Amino acid sequence: MYQCHPPKLPKNWPTDVLYLNTPYFHPSMSDDALSFVRGGSSKRTPLPPSPHSLGMIRPIMDRSHPAHGQHGLFAARKISPRTLIVEYIGEVHSDERPTSDYDVSLHRFAGNGESIGVDASNMGNEARFVNDYRGIRPKPNAEFADRRATGGDLRMGIWSLADGIRKGDEIVVSYGKDLVTLTWRAPYESSYSIFAVAIH
Ligand SMILES: C[S@@+](CC[C@H](N)C(=O)[O-])C[C@H]1O[C@@H](n2cnc3c(N)ncnc32)[C@H](O)[C@@H]1O
Fold it and tell me: Ligand 1 centroid to 131 CA: how many Å?
């Protein structure tokens, strides 16, 4: 089963979103795409769980915050530079998700153009609460970067930047493009961008 609930859900986890600690592979993925992401296997069996998140979900009460009324991810402790904060876990898929605000691009094949994303709109983990830095902090303190995890699969992670992050600070990344339109698709050469972001 993919629905791997931890013994206790993270504080402030929404009731209408399934918590996952390992990726769910959506049927839209071709066997070739699945094999690429899984590092040689096209099985749909569960992979090792994601490491514990160094961020905690908090509601944003500050009225001057651009995501006031929503949630953000905040450092649960001091985070050293270049440290994995949380893996971006969700539905790994190849179909279009034009209305999702939680869809991160993982890989695009040059040959057939198949594009793999990780969508955390209906299921995911703490990473889905990371906001874009604009209007919040002068610059990002974290970034998206992918790597092969212990099970050999390709996973997107959120990593601290060179300055590290103080305990209690909001963890913010760059979504990678001007956030002026409701939805947009990131350039394919940038595989680390959230590509369907709504800023209201
Ligand atoms: C991946 S979610 C981030 C978590 C979201 N705040 C929540 O509580 O579910 C992306 C959404 O967060 C909001 N958001 C993220 N960064 C923002 C920013 N800098 N300014 C305004 N809204 C932002 C937008 O509504 C965006 O569509």
Answer: 5
